[in-house]
Protein 1
Amino acid sequence: MTRIAIIGGGISGLAAAFALEEHRRAGADIDYVLYEASTRLGGVLRTEHIDGCLVEAGPDSFITEKPWATDLCRALGLGDQLIGSNDVDRKTYILTNGRLVVMPDGLMFMVPTKILPTGLSPLFSWKTKLRMTQELFHPPRAADHDESVASFVQRHYGSEMVDRLADPLLSGVYGGEAASLSVRAVLPRFAEMERTHGSLGRAMLAARRKISAGPRQPAPPLFTSLKAGMQHLAETVVSRLPQALLLTNAPVQAVQREAGGWVVSAGLQSDEFDSVIVALPAPAAAQVLRIASPDLSAELAAIQYSSSITVGLGYDRDVRQSLPPGFGFLVPRSEGKRLLAATFVHNKFPHRAPEDRALLRCFFAGANAENVWPLADDQIVGIVRNELQQILGLRAEPLFARVYKWKSAMAQYGVGHLDRLDRMERLRQQLPGLALAGNAYRGIGVPDCIRSGRDAAAQFSKS
Ligand SMILES: Cc1cc2nc3c(=O)[nH]c(=O)nc-3n(C[C@H](O)[C@H](O)[C@H](O)COP(=O)(O)OP(=O)(O)OC[C@H]3O[C@@H](n4cnc5c(N)ncnc54)[C@H](O)[C@@H]3O)c2cc1C
């Protein structure tokens, strides 16, 4: 029998455990144990029900285009629980010189695909609009090195595009800054478009033409979630696993190679395994692997993480009626606010708030999250309310407010990230029986984390 340890009970570790459990039930001669440091499983997937509202403390949904989360939900029998974002109301605003300006129609991330809405939009100056036109003539370019997203976007569209769109959009996903994120790791499709087409605008238009030449299909919703919230996904995975194999309150101090196998030390206990799946954020993975491989540990420790804070605010019917339509707004750094973004949850996922409630989800990330981190919850709520008043004119007292802090939870794929992953893979191959999963490697979102856990399990689950 092959014994496998999974370290970390977030969605990456749970996805690995579920894949192993499926193989075990199909007859594979395997056994596994999952170690989780805290008292609850699910990691950052956490949902609360407050005053009739469904409040997501961590992720609120996942991108539909990446299939692995939907696949897992279906495998768990949750197919009928999947819900899509209310895309008829999809509209995102960018705070521009203190005013909310709607992102023009046809903008694919930062690439304009419809001339008129972008040309008429007050979001960009004439200088940037001119750059957009010139961008259509960029020749193909085979870059021989990685660069930051900021420098890539700057080359194509200029610095205003970095400030108004690329930086806030990416900060919302990675909590980091466009100036330090790797274009190859974070926007691989764009890097490829530049290589093949030169102009991102032309590449995007060519892709659109291809799609519209094919059979017409209704576009799927951009985001998918679960009716009962994201925590329901983690809970359902847990309910399908033998409970005796799930060790909570069991922080692992070290995993070490011994006599061709692995020894996992958690508290005063240590246990032997044939293989180990380390499904931890990189700083924690670096810590547990420091003896087994100082070199791999050093590479892991060099992957930066940023902290984030979400604040859920519930309001009454009057506020709901006074808020603009759409999914919410993003705040560019240059606007001098501490908030990075706010989602109007009652519009994005309408059933998450009763009709007489408005539900807002506000977000701090990176340096701003670190700055407000030491403050008490009511002080953080005070900052949010003050900025919502400045941005939306919202003065009303919230019916409830909840603050959720996530320390070093979001991986930053810095310039050179993919080279680091190559070096790490070579080091890992010197450690038979070790697999890594989680958000530090090839995708930070829930679907990529699930894929990473599933792929890690597949390495060790041959029957
Ligand atoms: C605020 C926020 C909003 C997000 N929004 C979205 C979104 O809308 N859509 C999306 O797709 N993604 C989103 N993400 C990203 C995504 O949710 C995460 O990348 C993903 O859930 C990480 O899962 P994980 O299992 O790899 O890590 P985690 O959830 O961090 O789990 C790691 C687990 O390991 C445990 N652990 C740590 N050290 C040890 C140890 N020594 N021994 C044992 N256990 C240990 C921790 O307690 C934790 O439970 C968001 C992330 C955050 C923080």
Protein 2
Amino acid sequence: MPKIIPIIALGFLLNPLGIMAVSPGQQSFQQKCTACHTIGKGDRVGPDLKGVTSRHDAQWLVRWIMEPDKVIADKDPVALELLKKYNQVAMPNMGVNEAEAKNIIEYLGSGDAGGEEKVDISWSKSFSFGGIGSAQLTALVTFLVISIVIVIVFLLIARSTRNPVPTIDMKAAYKVRFKFFLAAAIVVVGTLAATLSRTPYPKSVITPSDQVKVLYVAAEQFFFRFSETPIQSSEDLKTVKALNEVVIPKGTLVEFHVTSVDVNHDFAIYDSAHRIIAQTQAMPHYTNRLQVKFDEAADYSVLCLEYCGLGHHKMRSKFTVR
Ligand SMILES: [Cu+2]
């Protein structure tokens, strides 16, 4: 039965679905906190968080996880004590919102977080049966259930088609097939015709008389540098004069030459109503050109849309059109 092989492969593909059984708090914790914290495995950059929910009250914890920088700035005595103990390394503001902070605290206080192996879902651990934890167990059970369902369906179909019914009116069958094809074609073409004109491509705003103003943009972890002279590499940063304030005269057609001096970033322009109006990738060793005509006097924001590191959420800039 060689057909069973792709089915097993499909089962493996579906396996990561089991990860979804991880609680939202655990997921946030693993994404944002494990670089510096363990639960029950000792101090890393920050303290071991085992039992932390009994060391602080919930309100303090929520605020701390959301804005540790502000807590420290407010000279909170508990925070200053911790800062001193951890060699003045301050925990960064991770942009965690209140709901997320509460989920993380719930996770930190739950039994799930108490054990040692349970928090660690590195691949080596999840395949060793010795330290199997609840997340791995959920993934395994989900995988097995999905696999069993697929195998059963396959076997049922294999059984039902073993003896094909010999008397099929092929003409009638082809007719049905044609009708299905026609119906599907009408639906697809109809949907396409009805929606194509609404595809959000900008109409070209450029007229031959437009003056093009070139602005160079160099993205760097975690900010954007604008300049009137080209920036190609981090070497140029030493000589190129960056603009402190970017003001564009109303009605100008700007051609942004966008590159990056380190990792991949994105350069996205938002208008004053926070609607994205244009974007392009900022890639090292490559320059993307983006033409935008600014007919509206307003403050525009620039955001990075490509996760580029721990400070990505802070990567924003602005310019003014007037
Ligand atoms: Cu980024």
